[in-house]
Fold:
Amino acid sequence: MAVLCAVAYHQPVDRAGLADIFGKEVNRDLLSRLRYKGLIGNGPKSPRPGAPHTFVTTAEFLATFDLQSLRDLPELDLTTSEADQEASIFRV
Structure:
């Protein structure tokens, strides 16, 4: 589910972009399963060297999650909680 969310919020995104998000390579089989289920599709070629394919969500994705458009996705709260911030200060 995390990979699907990453594609939805960062599209168009290529495998290298997903690796940057997760800090590790994303399994090709997982991407193939999401494509097979019609939740993601191929997007435009990436401007990165080698012009890799990118991934985007599909109309099936919108229908599955009862969305009219990508604007209906919930806002991401990327802020960390105060407790997390304090804990990171004291880590050695």
